[in-house]
Amino acid sequence: MYTRRVAEVEPLTNWAGNIAFRARQVLRPHSIDEVRDLVAKAPKLRVLGSGHSFNRLADTEGDLLSLAGLPRIVEIGPDRRTVRVDGGIRYGELAARLHAEGLALHNMASLPHISVAGAVATATHGSGVRHGNLATAVAGVELVRADGELVSLARGDAGFPGSVAALGALGAVVALTLDVQPTFELRQYVYENLPATSVRDHLDELLADGYSVSLFTRWTSADVDQVWLKRTEPRTGATLFGATLADGPRHPVPGMPAENCTRQGGVPGPWHERLPHFRMEFTPSSGEELQSEWHVPRVHARDALAAVAKIRERVAAVLQVCEVRTIAADDLWLSPNFERDSLALHFTWIADTEAVLPVVADLEQLLGPFGARPHLGKIFTTAPVDGYPRLADFTALVDRFDPAGKFRNEFLDRLLG
């Protein structure tokens, strides 16, 4: 038996608990053949990853399909430049297994707890001016389309750029092939109290000062509370553009224990133990939260930050912390970074939807003139259809793979029209 009736247990929710799924049942196959059979028979279906979306992207009134029970696949290519993984594996597990083989991914998100397929589907990202989002590592996609057929697409195939960050609209992704590289070490430093004048005058230099750089602010002042700097080489000096080196480990969310976070203080360690902000064995971030994120062209970075500062007090009143990161341009049709280097403004809100939504709407209005694109797995109120030049091509691809709309839901209907 590989199904579980939602009605027989407590209501199934997303990770944050702000979304209660309306599905009739959760299907839990243990093989790709079972996935094909279940997909072919289901009238309506959505794939559920690790539940880290904050909106109804994964919701359905049909069935939910969890791929967590699929056999783990970590198949390293003969040239050791790729790895093939199953559709249920999480980054934390994959990263440890790759490192043991002397290999690495180009980047990771702040949380190692998320599923690879789910993160790729929503163009989730890490940070670094030279690094694309996690989906840019995908060299091949294997998915079960609506009729139960197993289909493979590879980089270079027609439609491939629309099949990667595809929001689960094409089918159930049962395997991915990812680019890998030799393993490497990183050092992580945390600096505090970066002056607003440094953000204004040295933002580009600051964001390029490491392999991965994150700025954390609570918008209680014009200054930045923390700078998280991840470097391949050691950094000397107790200051960074006016910020001072922290005297011990820190957590980006005030009041949360620093032991939940990855090793700091410039101590070298494996890439997968430094690139995420949070350790796999602890609750990620704060747990009780909502999240929103908008990506703007990096050329508008200073202006976008200045726009947020106009409503700093309103933002701070419902905010836990805001993280500012960079992502390199890509060619993926539904990526927020499509054809432009981006600055991402990520907001971790308090767990109060009613209080947060008006501020989200205000931010959308302020950031809209800069061409802001939301992270489609987080909370937003206006879908910027005009912000995706290849949206019509993506819609045509969806219609070809799923002509009856088996994998569509209200969220996708609003986005695709």
TrEMBL record:
Record-annotated FAD-binding PCMH-type domain positions: 19-183
Origin: domain of life: Bacteria
Organism name: Actinoplanes regularis
GO molecular function: D-arabinono-1,4-lactone oxidase activity; FAD binding; L-gulono-1,4-lactone dehydrogenase activity
Record Pfam families: ALO, FAD_binding_4
Keyword Oxidoreductase listed: yes
Keywords assigned by UniProt, alphabetized: Oxidoreductase
SUPFAM superfamilies per record: FAD-binding/transporter-associated domain-like
GO cellular component, one term: membrane
InterPro entries: ALO_C, FAD-bd_PCMH, FAD-bd_PCMH-like_sf, FAD-bd_PCMH_sub1, FAD-bd_PCMH_sub2, FAD_lactone_oxidase-like, Oxid_FAD_bind_N, Vanillyl_alc_oxidase_C-sub2
Name the UniProt record assigns to this protein: Xylitol oxidase
